[in-house]
Design a protein that fits this description.
The complex is a heterodimer of chains A (365) and B (278).
Chain A: H1 5-9, H2 13-17, H3 28-34, H4 53-63, E1 78-80, E2 83-97, E3 104-121, E4 125-134, E5 139-150, E6 154-161, H5 175-180, E7 188-197, E8 200-207, E9 221-229, E10 233-242, E11 249-260, E12 263-274, E13 282-296, E14 299-309, E15 319-328, E16 334-344, E17 355-364
Antiparallel strand pairs in A: 1-2, 2-3, 2-17, 3-4, 4-5, 5-6, 6-7, 7-8, 8-9, 9-10, 10-11, 11-12, 12-13, 13-14, 14-15, 15-16, 16-17
Chain B: H1 3-22, H2 50-58, H3 82-86, H4 109-115, H5 133-144, E1 160-164, E2 170-171, E3 177-182, E4 196-200, E5 208-212, E6 220-225, E7 232-238, E8 266-272
Parallel strand pairs in B: 2-8
Antiparallel strand pairs in B: 1-3, 3-6, 4-7, 5-6, 7-8
Helix pairs in contact in B: 2-5
The chains are: A mainly beta (365), B alpha+beta (278).
């Protein structure tokens, strides 16, 4: 693998000048840093999407380097008693250098989403919508009804939803999220039962297993996630089984996190056995190790190292992905992220050895 | 066990986990593997043709999304368009990579997208279930054998097989390019701005500034307009009669009116509507 040093060093200087940055939506390191469950800041108990009143308040008072505006103008997301709104928009400038190809760079709208939560029976029954408006055509990502059978303890959710498996990362390109196929680009239709009890949070979902598309067979997917949350550490496990006609798919994952002052470590290991790949099925594995360093309020330095084993029966086919990101929240609801990602794979595949740098403006509420 | 011991154990556990994750988890050296990271095949290539792929993969699976004016990345995989929009066409996501590079399945973006080793975006079909290895091998085999066209495009008659936008379709505001796909390879020397005519709803001509037969796609003409089309109705005229009539490499003049006899213009109407999406 070889890269033109001049090309690499010649990344837009603005990238370095603007290399400052802080938090995002669906960033489990924040929950680990604060010793909270995902559902503390998100209306979805498994994290991601619309923020709760606590999550919005936290974003304004604890995450941003500085809060501007009048004291009394504290955004809670609740525009009226029974309706909360939220959203995310990410605009990127991305530079990609694939060996033996001309480097490319482009501006792109990574995503623009809006959330609506109709809390028709406050604390008990709500109808939730997550609509992606860009890129491309408007697409519904989540549409479900959630009923807390026992307030803050037991709920049932039905409709279109993200399935519970491992950490719900903002980075859908992470190997662990690609491997499981469960990320914030691939909702599914089904029903989920969730339990919140003391330090425990657990979910089990039964879904079509068709990645949000129409059901193609009679088989269903079952996905479970169980996590024990302490103030300084947490650990959990996930399981999935998809009884698909094209070949069953089963998987398991372990994940955990530890916080020590400004440092937070996250780890996840996932294993998938997919009978639909190859004549005899394929066993795959991926890991994620993430370290976050809160330099000061509003500033976070993130280092991740990922490893992918696309076929356990083959040697020397592993891939890695190393990322260094700086995240800066100068004011509430604004985040600037700058980072580089280095992909390392087999030398005969150029795409597995690309370099990527990006600068992102992220607005959320 | 008190809380202090629990936390200590947890710390050790997490650090052990991190160490295990990092230890030995490096990239492979690719020895004994093909470009895709698979074992170098010891089986002969799958004997497949485009029609088989169209009938068993593109039409029943891919056209759930990849069809019509809203096809993702502009890639229509219905029978009328798929071949012309795949073979020797640069991918939108990685413009340096062809969607189908004849003779080279590993360098073909469609194969990378189907196998999940693509540089950008999600593996296809989006959200799964993904194609079986047998289905992927069909695509690989066809590309390895040279990505030959479907039999329907080998004809002794020249007709318009498809257009983008299609007839009676609504194109996005700002559309500045039209594509015409023919049933056979064109005599490129006959292709020029006089061969095509575009008129708006007031029967006023709309200027074409360029016509191009793309490299490796001799049955396709890309038309470049002088400016993006505003909302309204339009009619495209492909000449099959008169001195500007199109013909294929074998000298067959365009049967534009589809009466089975060479000659006659091909006429197609479409709209550009405010808010319409491609």
């Amino acid at each position: 693998m070889s890269f033109s040093n001049r090309k690499w060093l010649g990344l837009p200087c603005a990238l370095l000048l603007l290399a400052l940055g802080s938090m995002a939506q669906a960033e489990p390191y924040l929950a680990a840093q604060m010793g909270l469950k995902c559902g503390q800041c998100h209306v979805n108990p498994t994290g991601g999407g619309m923020r709760t009143v606590y999550g919005n308040t936290f974003a304004q008072t604890a995450l941003a380097a500085k809060r501007i505006g009048a004291e009394e103008d504290l955004w809670t997301g609740q525009v009226m008693k029974f309706l909360s709104v939220g959203g995310n928009a990410r605009a990127n400038y991305t530079y990609v250098d694939v060996p033996h190809q001309d480097a490319t760079n482009e501006f792109e709208t990574e995503e623009a989403r809006a959330y609506l939560d109709f809390g028709v029976i406050p604390g008990r029954l709500s109808v939730y919508l997550d609509q992606r408006f860009a890129p491309g055509n408007a697409t519904n990502m989540e549409a479900n009804v959630r009923y807390w059978v026992k307030e803050n303890a037991l709920y049932v959710k039905a409709g279109r939803m993200y399935l519970p498996f491992g950490y719900r990362l903002e980075d859908d390109g992470a190997f662990v999220r690609q491997l499981s196929g469960i990320n914030m680009q691939a909702p599914d239709e089904g029903v989920e039962l969730g339990v919140e009890h003391g330090n425990w949070t657990g979910q089990v979902a039964l879904s079509n297993g068709a990645g949000g598309g129409g059901e193609l067979d009679h088989g269903k997917q079952i996905t479970t996630r169980l996590e024990f949350v302490q103030s300084r550490w947490r650990a959990g496990a996930s399981l999935l089984f998809n009884d698909a006609e094209a070949g069953s798919r089963s998987g398991a994952g372990l994940f955990g996190a530890f916080n020590a002052g400004p440092f937070t470590l996250l780890g996840e290991i996932d294993y998938i056995d997919d009978d639909s790949i190859g004549a005899d099925g394929t066993k795959l594995m991926a890991t994620l190790a993430e370290a976050d360093w809160k330099l000061r309020q509003g500033h976070n330095l993130k280092l991740t190292y990922e490893w992918l084993e696309p076929n356990r029966d083959l040697d020397e086919d592993e891939q890695t992905r190393t990322s260094l990101l700086y995240e800066w929240s100068p004011i509430q609801f604004v985040q600037i992220r700058a980072g580089v990602r280095i992909y390392d794979g087999i030398p005969q595949n150029d795409n597995q050895n690309r370099r990527q740098a990006f600068l992102q403006l992220h607005g959320f509420f | 066990m008190d809380a202090g011991n629990t936390n200590l154990l947890a710390r050790k556990g997490i650090f052990l986990l991190a160490a295990l994750v990092l230890a030995g988890c490096t990239a492979g050296n690719g020895e004994g593997l093909d470009e895709n990271g698979g074992a170098i095949p010891i089986v002969p290539p799958v004997d497949s043709d485009f029609q088989q792929i169209q009938d068993t993969i593109f039409t029943p699976i891919c056209t759930n999304c990849h069809v019509g004016a809203n096809a993702p990345q502009g890639l229509r995989l219905d029978a009328a368009n798929s071949y012309a929009l795949l073979v020797n066409v640069a991918s939108n996501e990685v413009p340096g990579t062809l969607r189908v590079s004849p003779g080279n399945p590993d360098a073909s973006y469609i194969v990378q997208k189907l196998q999940g080793n693509n540089a950008v975006g999600a593996r296809m079909p989006f959200g799964g279930p993904y194609l079986s290895q047998t289905q992927i091998d069909l695509v690989r085999g066809w590309i390895a054998a040279g990505a030959t066209p479907p039999p329907a495009s080998v004809s002794n008659q020249l007709t318009v097989a498809s257009t983008i936008p299609a007839g009676k379709e609504s194109a996005a505001p700002g559309t500045a390019n039209l594509t015409v796909i023919f049933s056979a390879d064109l005599d490129a020397s006959l292709v020029n701005t006089a061969t095509f005519g575009l008129r708006d709803g007031f029967d006023e001509p709309v200027a074409l500034v360029g016509t191009k037969v793309p490299d490796g796609r001799p049955n396709v003409v890309e038309l470049t307009l002088a400016r993006p089309l505003p909302p309204g109705s339009y009619q495209l005229d492909v000449r099959g009669a008169g001195p500007a009539a199109l013909a294929d490499n074998a000298g067959h003049v365009l049967d534009g009116d589809a009466d089975g006899v060479a000659g006659g213009d091909y006429l197609m109407s479409f709209d550009v509507k405010p808010g319409a999406q491609r």
